Amino acid sequence: MADTKERLPARVTMPLLTLITQQSLDEDYLHAAERRVARGGANPPPGHRGRRTAAVVAVVAVFGVLVTTAAVQTNRNADTVDAGRESLIEQILNQRADVAAQQVSLADLRDEIADLEDEQDRTDAAQQSVADANERLSVRTGGVAVRGPGVRITVDDPEQGEERIRKEDLFLLINGLWQAGAEAIALNGHRLSVVTSINNSDVAINVESSALLPPYTLQAIGDSGRLAADLLDTDTFERFDALQDRYGFRFDMDNEDSMVLPAARDKRLRNASVATTQSDRRAEEGTTP
């Protein structure tokens, strides 16, 4: 290894700055000698030669300083570039982590929204079910006016005899219509409900303190294709039919494509209240059995 190093040229083993300086000086001396020969071989004055040498040395020194400064600056720039690259990589990694976290949060929010939508659908379905039940209850109890197909029944006293239609006879037809599937019933234009008062009064029948005289007209909304037939099959109509044969009551029933029944009179409850069971009371009190 030592022999190999000795065989290498001096310009290979010499430091770079020394080599540059030496080569610059050699070239300067060469150019100076060539210029002397071109002028006739006369040597310049000693002072002039010293000034030239000093100038060359100064130029080489400045050049060396510049090279050294450039090398140091290049090294600093490399450090700055490396630091900037590492900072950029760190920012990219942080941004990727933030995006991943936001994607997870977005997925959770989507699941939460889907659950809320399902709950909203169930709530809407329950609300619609309650609304439908309330509508059916309002129709059945006479709370609202209704329109629809049904049957019209007219009953009257017999043409001869002293017997008269009484409320009990009308109850047989009214109960038969409920059994046959009627959704709403009116008597002489008075909507019947669970609190409607019907009483006998001499030759008339009072409905909510209004005296009605025969003929009596019952209007019932329901399936007009089956309501009349189903009424004839009820036991209450069989009992009315027996009274009709016995006393000669006049009876007529027709199907109607459309009829309108008014709402029942608003009658305030004075004595009735919602019954509370034992389990309801325990729930209100927060106790267990």
Question: What does this entry look like structurally?
Answer:
58% of the residues lie in helices and 16% in strands. Among the domains are: 10-79; 144-261, Alpha-Beta Plaits (2-Layer Sandwich). The strands form 2 sheets. A 5-stranded antiparallel sheet has the order 3-2-7-1-8. It is rod-shaped, with a radius of gyration of 59 Å. The protein has helices at residues 2-7, 10-13, 16-38, 46-141, 167-179, 227-232, 235-247, 278-285, and strands spanning 146-156, 184-187, 190-191, 198-201, 204-207, 210-212, 216-221, 250-261. The model has no long low-confidence stretch (mean pLDDT 80). β4 and β5 (204-207) form a beta hairpin. The longest helix is centred in the first third of the chain and has 96 residues, at 46-141. With 289 residues, the chain is an alpha+beta fold. The chain is built from 8 helices and 8 strands.
Q: What is the CATH top level name of the domain at 144-261?
A: Alpha Beta
How far is the first residue's CA from the last residue's CA? 104 Å
Strand content: 15-25%
Could you give the order of the helices and strands? HHHHEHEEEEEEHHEH
Number of helices: 8
Q: What sort of overall outline do the alpha carbons produce when their principal axes are compared?
A: rod-shaped
Biggest β-sheet, characterized? 5 strands, antiparallel
Q: In the CATH classification, which architecture of the domain at 144-261 applies?
A: 2-Layer Sandwich
Keywords: Coiled coil
Pfam families: DUF881 (PF05949)
Biased composition (Basic and acidic residues): 279-289
InterPro entries: DUF881
